[in-house]
């Protein structure tokens, strides 16, 4: 009984750590994030490619993930985004990517 309980607790702890690390991967690949009001959207694709949309403008970008930081580069301008514990992204506080939430 105790061994079974320990196994269940270990599985729950692993799941919490996994989700806390933003879905056990780099956390952004295959997901789309959106800024407040939906004006800015970034679709992170596999292979370090991303599509950023601002209003009617779309740009092909690249990104790298290092620990909890995503470096998004569009038109030779790099913006560092922080992966938060809730899975959202935070960028520069005065920019349009100050807080981006995952929409899919």
List keywords for this structure.
18% helix, 104 residues, disordered N terminus, alpha+beta, 1 helix, 8 strands
Structural domains: how many: 1
Question: What's the rounded overall pLDDT mean?
Answer: 81
Named CATH architecture = Beta Barrel
- Runs with pLDDT <50, length 5+? 1-24
Largest sheet: 8 strands, antiparallel
Number of beta strands: 8
Spatial gap, N to C terminus: 40 Å
| Rg result | 16 Å
Task: Fill in the CATH topology.
Answer: Lipocalin
Give the % helix. Answer: 10-25%
Classification by helices and strands: alpha+beta
The CATH class designation is Mainly Beta
H and E order: HEEEEEEEE
Strand order of the largest sheet: 7-6-5-4-3-2-1-8
**Percent range for β-strand residues:** 35-45%
- Counting DSSP H or I runs of 4 or more residues, the number of helices is 1
Q: What is the approximate shape? A: globular
What does this structure look like?
The chain has 104 residues and is an alpha+beta fold. It has 1 helix and 8 strands. It has one domain (26-102): Beta Barrel (Lipocalin), CATH 2.40.128. 18% of the residues lie in helices and 39% in strands. An 8-stranded antiparallel beta sheet has the order 7-6-5-4-3-2-1-8, with no helix packed on it. Strand 2 (40-44) and strand 3 (49-54) form a beta hairpin.
Secondary structure topology:
Layout: H1 2-20, E1 32-34, E2 40-44, E3 49-54, E4 57-66, E5 69-74, E6 77-83, E7 89-90, E8 101-102
Antiparallel strand pairs: 1-2, 1-8, 2-3, 3-4, 4-5, 5-6, 6-7
């Amino acid at each position: 009984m105790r061994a079974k309980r320990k196994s269940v607790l270990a599985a729950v702890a692993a799941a919490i750590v996994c989700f806390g690390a933003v879905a056990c991967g780099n956390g952004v690949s295959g997901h789309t994030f959106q800024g407040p009001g939906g004006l800015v959207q970034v679709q992170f694709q596999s292979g370090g490619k991303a599509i950023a949309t601002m209003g009617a403008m779309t740009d092909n970008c690249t990104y790298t993930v290092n620990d909890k930081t995503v470096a998004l580069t569009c038109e030779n301008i790099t913006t560092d985004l922080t992966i938060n514990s809730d899975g959202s992204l935070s960028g520069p506080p005065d920019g349009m990517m100050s807080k981006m939430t995952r929409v899919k």
